[in-house]
Write a structure and sequence with these properties.
The structure holds 2 protein chains of 2 kinds. Chain A is α+β, with helices and mostly antiparallel strands. Chain A has helices at residues 15-33, 36-57, 63-66, 69-87, 98-114, 128-159, 161-170, 174-194, 211-236; strands spanning 240-248, 255-265, 272-282, 287-291, 307-316, 322-331, 339-348, 354-356. In chain A, a hairpin with a 6-residue loop joins strand 2 (255-265) and strand 3. In chain B, helix 2 (35-52) packs parallel to helix 4 (118-140), helix 2 crosses helix 5 (149-155) and helix 2 (35-52) runs antiparallel to helix 6 (161-174). Classes of the chains: A alpha+beta, B alpha+beta.
């Protein structure tokens, strides 16, 4: 075997650059589609990419607490357990697994600190011992990821329809988060696990945070808080409503009216909008729907998780009064017991009197 | 080290990358049965690269000196990045494939049957995971001294994997087409015909456990208490009363199609697909989809695939699969 190692040319693609590229692509798509929520999502992704870049630019050391092997191993075990939970099929972030996902992200940030971000550091920033340790961790991690992924994917594909359907779901669900976690952070997890106990006589002098460190911490905090705000906003912020109506042309003997109303919940521009857009008519004997008051019209747009349609019904009572009710329940992703019901109603009498709207 | 000069080693790596790119690329649309050849070429290149590197990536640590261990471990760290890049490329390829399939070929219909990654994607993923470290080591290997033919032959022993893979593949293909996936939605939300109830039906029957060929069937069936019939395929014989009631049946490939799935012919060639419909005196509809699957470049193995769907005039499904 030869000792001469010819290195591959370093490709100037970093994780933040990659995320930023994807975000810019999302922005372009969002701009083309004119979707405001997509623009906000892309802006958030760009902010996350910037946060990663700022965090990585700040030198870190594990400190007294994270230098302890027991603490590091506990952290790794916690991250592994959350990853296993996602691998077992927990939903994507903006679903029931949000808290765990944020815990996973926070765990990865702490993991980077515990390992001095050795796994992804440039060669010039690691000494010989660290280089050997991270390379060994990479080999072990690679074996684990390759064996687990290969066996699970191949096994699920050839075993039968049920396992293939599971694989299809896994590609779009929680298991992908577990896979990404292993692919991006398993070497760091193994470094944290393998790194020996730091000598106890080494002092860890207390010091004030530098400005870049404070900025990085603030950005990480914002990046973690934004999704939480986004998900609790539908049940905290007031509902914003609009409504108008106007006469509509109608056949002889009938009178028609156009009704338009919206109810937006959540953050402005990034929430969910319920819309009632319909024409209803009356002829003195009964009121009736022309269009827009059907089951297929009860569709919220810009849907965020935790939206359940409670009711979408249209009826005409014995007096000839038209009743249309569209009720939706918003559930907090963080505290499932916290809910808010939003109801849109149109009650139109046979003589054209608008009893209730919206 | 083997006698292959360095330039050839890197050429082997590039060839391997090219063969891998063919697997993940949305083009060509179908490999028309050449998928197994591409797979075997990849295995051959794997063996050549493994022999060239002395299978360093898989060597036991106890048998390596410090420099070899360092080279090997460092290659694994690089391989992680290669795998991440490869998976992103696969995701891009899958996205482009889905766009192509949706807009140019055939929409998945109301009840899609999952085919995650597909056989090409599975082979590409396994190849990426298994051989990325070896490819990195091979790329980084300097020119080296020649080894004896006997030693090189010893390292090339894993080439036995090629006949082994062929044997397992032929064995898998020899098994009868047992895997049948069926999905149905009755009544379907995708079709409303006044005076009748309609259901959507999808099915897949395949040979070779995903590494052969599969026949997909998609049909919308309506019934009105007197008869059941297929909706959405004007090529099928339409009951006379249906034409009288509803007018000529429009073509709706989203609901009903008898087209051969072009993108399901990577490891086999499919031909002669035909779909027939008959309605008996009781108004029960019998729908049969059949196609011929030829496997191997010269049609070594042949299978007749068939999916039956029998629905009574009141919507009872008598046979499906």
């Amino acid at each position: 075997m030869s000792a001469n190692v010819a290195r591959l040319p370093r490709v100037a693609v970093s994780l933040p650059a990659l995320i930023a590229t994807i975000a810019i692509a999302l922005l372009v798509i969002a701009w083309l589609s004119g979707a405001q929520s997509s623009i906000l999502t892309a802006a958030y992704v760009i902010f996350v990419a910037l946060t990663i870049r700022v965090v990585r630019s700040v030198p870190v050391s594990a400190g007294a607490w994270l230098s302890r092997r027991l603490v590091r191993r506990t952290l790794v075990a916690g991250i592994a357990l959350i990853s296993l939970d996602f691998a077992a099929g927990r939903g994507l972030p903006f679903d029931s697994g949000l808290v765990l996902f944020l815990a996973l992200v926070a765990g990865d940030v702490v993991l980077g600190r515990a390992t001095s971000r050795m796994a992804s550091a440039k060669d010039e920033f690691v000494d010989e011992r660290q280089e050997a340790l991270r390379n060994r961790a990479s080999r072990l991690a690679y074996g684990m990821v390759a064996a687990a992924t290969g066996v699970i994917v191949f096994g699920a594909y050839v075993t039968g329809p049920a396992t293939r359907a599971w694989l299809d779901g896994a590609l779009h669900g929680g298991p992908m988060i577990a896979f990404a976690q292993l692919l991006l952070f398993l070497p760091a997890m193994l470094i944290a696990w393998l790194e020996p106990e730091a000598p106890t006589d080494e002092p860890f002098p207390a010091r004030r945070w530098t400005a870049p460190e404070r900025l990085a911490a603030a950005m990480v905090g914002i990046a973690l808080i934004v999704p939480i705000v986004f998900l609790v906003s539908p049940v905290i912020l007031p509902v914003r409503s609009t409504a108008f109506q106007r006469p509509e042309s109608a056949p002889a003997g009938e009178t028609c009216r156009y009704f338009d109303a919206t109810r937006e919940v959540g953050l402005p521009g990034a929430g969910t909008t319920l819309r009632l857009s319909a024409v209803a008519c009356w002829n003195g004997k009964t009121a009736f729907e022309e269009w827009g008051l059907n089951d297929s019209d009860c569709l919220p747009s810009g849907v965020i998780a935790g939206v359940t349609r409670l009711r979408c019904s249209r009826s005409v009572d014995a007096d000839g009064t038209l009743h249309f009710i569209y009720a939706t329940r918003f559930q907090s992703a963080l505290i499932p017991t916290v809910t808010r019901d939003v109801v849109m109603t149109l009650v139109l009498a046979k003589d054209g009197r608008v009893v209730q709207f919206p | 080290m083997s006698g292959l000069p360095r330039i050839r080693t890197r050429h082997l790596v590039l060839l391997m990358a090219l063969a891998w790119a063919i697997l993940i690329s949305p083009y060509p649309l179908s490999l028309h049965g050449w998928g197994i050849v591409v797979t075997l070429v990849l295995i051959g290149l794997d063996v050549a690269l493994g022999a060239r590197t002395g299978w360093l990536a898989f060597a036991r640590s106890s048998g390596l000196d410090e420099r070899e261990a360092a080279l090997r471990n460092r290659a694994y760290r690089t391989a992680f990045r290669v795998v991440i890049g490869g998976i992103l490329l696969m995701a891009l390829g899958a996205y482009l494939s889905s766009l192509r399939t949706f807009f140019l070929l055939d929409s998945p219909g109301p009840l899609p049957i999952p085919d995650p990654l597909g056989p090409r994607g599975i082979v590409a993923l396994l190849e990426l995971l298994a051989l990325a470290p070896t490819a990195v080591i091979a790329w980084r290997q300097p020119d080296s001294e020649r080894t004896s033919a006997a030693a090189w032959l010893g390292r090339a022993m894993p080439a036995l994997a090629i006949p082994l893979v062929v044997g397992v593949w032929v064995l898998a293909l020899s098994a009868p087409p047992a895997l049948a996936v069926t999905r149905s939605q009755v009544p379907t939300t995708s079709l409303e015909v006044s005076g009748a109830t309609c259901g959507a039906f999808s099915a897949l029957r395949e040979v070779g456990y995903g590494f052969g060929a599969g026949m997909r069937m998609r049909a919308a069936v309506c019934w009105d208490g007197k008869q059941a019939w297929i909706f959405g395929d004007p090529a099928l014989r339409e009951p006379a009363f249906v034409g009288n009631l509803f007018g000529p049946t429009p073509s709706d490939p989203y609901l009903t199609t008898c087209a051969v799935a072009v993108d399901a012919q990577d490891f086999a060639v499919v031909s002669g697909k035909r779909c027939t419909e008959s309605i008996d005196a009781n108004g029960t509809m019998h729908y049969v989809a059949q196609e011929q699957v030829s496997i191997g470049l010269r049609g070594l193995l042949q299978h007749q695939l068939r999916i039956d769907l029998v629905v009574t005039r009141d919507g009872r499904v008598i046979n499906f699969g």
